[in-house]
Structure formats: C-alpha cells, structure tokens
Amino acid sequence: MNRTRLRFWALYLTRFAGGFGFITLVTLLPKYINELDPTALVLPELAIGGLVLGGLTLSKGFVIGMYTTGFTLAQTVAVVPLAWAGDRYDKRLVLAGTVGLGAVVYALFPLVDSSLSFVVARAAQGIAVTGAGLMSLALVGELAREGTRANHIGKANAARFAASILGSISAGFLYDAFGFTPIFIVITILLTIAVVAVWVFLPPDETTVHGFPFTNLALNERILTMATFRVQYSVAVTLVRTWVPIYAGVSAASGGLAYGGIAVAATVVAEKFTNMLCQPYTGRISDQYGRARFVFVGGGLYGLIALAVPFSPAIGEALALPAAFPILGPLSPAFLPLVGLAGLLGVADSLREPASMALFADEGTDGAGVASSFGIRELLWRPGSVAAPLLGGYLMADVGMEWVFYVGGASAITGVLAFLGVLVWSHGTSALTQW
C-alpha cells in the first residue's frame, strides 16, 4: 500500500472512530437520563455590586435539554478558533490533539456521577468532535487532487456512516451485557489507535495561512451562493432526520405509527446504510460531471422524498403490503414504505453531501484556508439545526405530525431553488454544469 493511500486510510480511521464514539453516546443518552435521574437545580444567590439576586431554579426539562445543548453550544464556540488554528499552524497537530482529547474525555465518562459533570463532559466531547471533524475533512480535501476530492470526501463520510450503523446497533447490546465502562474502553482504544495512525502516516502540515481567513472566505462569491442553499437545507435535514424515527415510534395519538425499538432502528439504519454505500460513488461522479448539479439534484430529491413520508400508510395499503413480520411482529402496511423512503433519503443526501463538501474544500485550498472554509460550512448549518427541533416540536404538538415533513421537504425545495436562482444570476446560466 503506497504512502498516499495510507494517509487517506489514517484519516478515514479518525472519521470512523469519531463517528463511533458520537453515535454510541447518543444511543446511551436515555440510559444516562435514567442513571443520573436529573432533577430541578436551584442555583445559589449571586451578588452583583450591591444587588443580591435570588437563587434561580432550573427545571428538570432544562437540565435534560442541557445534556444535548451543552454539546451543541461547545461545538458552535469551538468552530472558529479550531479552524483558525488548523490553517495558521499545523492541521495534523490540531487533529491529533483533538482526537487525543476525545480519547481522554471518553475514558472519563465512566466517572460521571451527576448532571453537572455529564454536561461538562459532553461539552468537552463537543470540542473534540468538532476539531476532529473539521481537521480530518480539511486534510482529506487538501491531500486529494481537485479531480478526486469529492470521491475521497465521500469515502471519509462512508467511514463515518459505517461507524454510526455499528455504534447504534452495538451500544444497546454492549450496555445490557457489560454496562458503561467497557463501551468507553473500546471507544478510547479506537481513538488512541487513530491518534497513532495520524502521527505516523500523515506528514506535518506545511500550509500556513496568516491573518484571519474567515474574513476573506465569508465574502467569497461561491460560498455566499452555497449559503443560500445550506441555511435552508439544514432545517430540512434536521427536521426529517430527527422526525422519521419519532414518526415511526410515537403513539398513534401523537400522530405516529407506534412501532417498537427494532422497527424504529430499521428506519434509522436504512438512511445511513444507503448513504454509506452511495457516497464514494456519487462523490466520484460529481468529480467528473460537476458539483453544483449534484447539490441541486440531491437537495431537490431529498425535499420530494420528505414530502412523501406522511403518505407511508396510504402507500402500504395501496400496495397491499404485509402488516406483520418475523421477529418484528405486528406492525402495519406502512413499515416497508417508510423504511424504503428512509433509504431513498440516504441516496438523495449522498448525491448532495460529497459535492457540497468538495465545493467548500475547493474554495479553501491554494492558500485560502481549507479548515476555515469547512468552519464556515459548519457555522451555516448551526442556525437551522438549533431552530428546527423547536419548530418540529411545535408542528407535531399543535398542527400535525405530517406538517413536520411538509415543512422539511419545502425547506429543501426552496433551498435548491434559491441556490439555482443565485447561481444563474451571479455566475451565469452555465454555472450549474461548470462548478
């Protein structure tokens, strides 16, 4: 195996190890809620100048919300400094450091014994996950030639999806058999091996960008054009990806299908599995035929498929599909259509993701700051990913479950139409095929 290939495999390993740790902890989150039994928290009185503020009570729901929000806030805060450090100094060093931080954090999770320590550990995990994700993608984009960039990014993403599938399936079984500690030992070992691979196989990064690359890249015409799509598409993906398993699992009274845990997991795995299989191939053909059209087609298809999700029961009944399955037991005719649509969502997103990432990598290479380019891409996703769950909760409770998917699908479609309009207006009618 030649040296270049070993470098890519080391980066793919970091994507796999990071994805395995992330999805395992997400899967174990309900176990931590049960184990830690979070309750309302009363903050002590604060004295500011001569003013004494009374103690503030944080509700149980707020504390539980911080189990996830602490992670997300830390990610948001970490993006700019980590991306800047990668471009200014050595991306290999930042990658090894953040993956190493992740190994330490996961090794400490078995010691967590309170809601506060769990939130702090989740925040540290958010910093580690952000740094590892940004630097691994930046190095993949930098090492790959322009004509192969989306293909290599697709392979890196496929490694992450493989870890998500394996982690989500194995976490519950490992916890039931062994408890928390052995799971985190496995994750720590994986991340430690990834650090060694990065240090041994990747050369020191000699591309140095002085100043603050975010300033110039924020005004980059291509990035601004991509922003018109990405900000809206983040709402679509967050809503649809979050609510497909919710739709499958919640009671009929709440607008769902009331499936059991294994059936719900099948909808999640279907989307990740097709995405994993397709991304290396779709990345390669987007290298050959242009990235912008894959963003446009993939985003548009995602929206159309999302609009069809609430019609799963009608599709199942029209096709006279079975309502019971071996192992899974009685379900409904909607099960196979829902799993099929989830798989198609993965195919559609596989058209968009490597092409989108490669576009940002293209703008960041040649001295512009590839880590900062990916940092901007990450920041563009944040507003939608934070606001969409709140919107989805309102739609589900007060309007109707189906409207989560209607709004999600519409957000993807308006996103690709805005992208096409700005693309043609600012870059000409041939830009869709030339980018």
UniProtKB/TrEMBL annotation:
Keywords: Membrane, Transmembrane, Transmembrane helix. InterPro entries: MFS, MFS_dom, MFS_trans_sf. One of its GO terms (molecular function) is transmembrane transporter activity. SUPFAM superfamilies: MFS general substrate transporter. Pfam families: MFS_1 (PF07690). Residues 7-427 form the Major facilitator superfamily (MFS) profile domain. The chain crosses the membrane at residues 6-29, 64-86, 93-112, 124-144, 156-175, 181-202, 291-311, 323-347, 403-425. This is MFS transporter.
